[in-house]
Amino acid sequence: MRLVFMGPPGVGKGTQAKRLKTHFKIVHLSTGDILREEINTNTRLGGQAKTFMNDGQLVPDNLLLEMMNNRLRQDDCMEGYLLDGFPRTLPQAQGLDSILEDLNQSLDRAVNLTADSDELIRRLILRGQESGRDDDSPDVIRKRQQVYWDQTAPLIDYYRKQQILIEVNGIGEIAEITHRIIKSLT
Predict the structure, then answer these.
(1) Domain spans, the chain
(2) Is-contact 165 108, C-beta < 8 A?
(3) Using CA atoms, how far apart are residues 36 and 113, in angstroms rounded to an integer?
(4) Beta bridge partners of 27
(5) What pTM did the predictor assign?
(6) Which positions are catalytic?
(7) What are the CA-CA distances from residue 33 to residues 36, 43, 78, 133 (Å)?
(8) Exposure of 114 by Cβ count < 10 A (0-12 exposed, 13-18 middle, 19+ buried)?
(9) What three-state secondary structure class fits 41?
(10) Which of 126, 137, 127, 113 is nearest to 4 (CA)?
């Protein structure tokens, strides 16, 4: 199974991705993990990405796409994968489609976890208080949510037009949400 996992900050993508990885016995591919691996192993792409990141800039789409292309060609991805945090923009989604076409693959589903924005803000503030994360203050949370709606939300329509979008309510007990997702995929 090949999945894209989407949803606004705080909806529980990471938690659910770990559970689905185990259930479906597929690889969980996080953009952040892939970037860190490229940087830690001093690859050419990692060095280029690090330059942008050190300047406080986003890693350009062409670098992310090249990293994803390399990663999706590895043996552990042949049985399926869950993409978490990628694609984030329409150009990345179109680039992913090109990579998959090259690999003679296609996505099975794009799962969009949904939730009320007030609930998400409450969750993230609580997470910030519990973990001491600086990026979980109300102002930063609202900015991150706005970036999501501006850049990533257009992917909802993109995948809806491809008829692979599934929308799942991301509010409730963790196990209950996992069950909803699995039920929608089978």
Answers:
(1) 2-180
(2) no
(3) 25
(4) 81
(5) 0.86
(6) 13, 88, 127, 133, 144
(7) 5, 14, 19, 19
(8) middle
(9) coil
(10) 113
Rg over CA atoms, the chain: 16
In this structure, is the dihedral angle defined by the CA atoms of residues 108, 148, 36 and 181, taken in order, positive or negative?
negative
Assigned token pair, 147: 């970036």
* Alpha-carbon distances, residue 76 vs 27, 59, 137, 182 (angstroms): 7, 25, 37, 22
Q: What is the pLDDT along the chain (186 residues), one digit of tens a residue?
A: 999 999 888 888 889 999 999 999 999 998 888 988 999 999 999 999 988 888 878 789 999 999 999 999 999 999 999 999 899 899 999 999 999 999 999 999 999 999 888 888 888 888 778 877 666 677 777 787 887 888 888 999 999 999 999 999 999 999 999 999 999 998
Q: How far apart are CA 83 and CA 31, in angstroms?
A: 8
Cα gap 91→94, rounded to integer Å: 5
- φ, ψ for residue 79, nearest 5 deg: -90, -5
**Alpha-carbon gap, residue 162 to 83, rounded angstroms:** 17
β-partners of residue 4 are 83, 110
Q: What is the CATH number of domain 2-180?
A: 3.40.50.300
Report cis status (omega within 30 of 0) of the bond before 87.
yes
* Tokens encoding 75: 């043996």
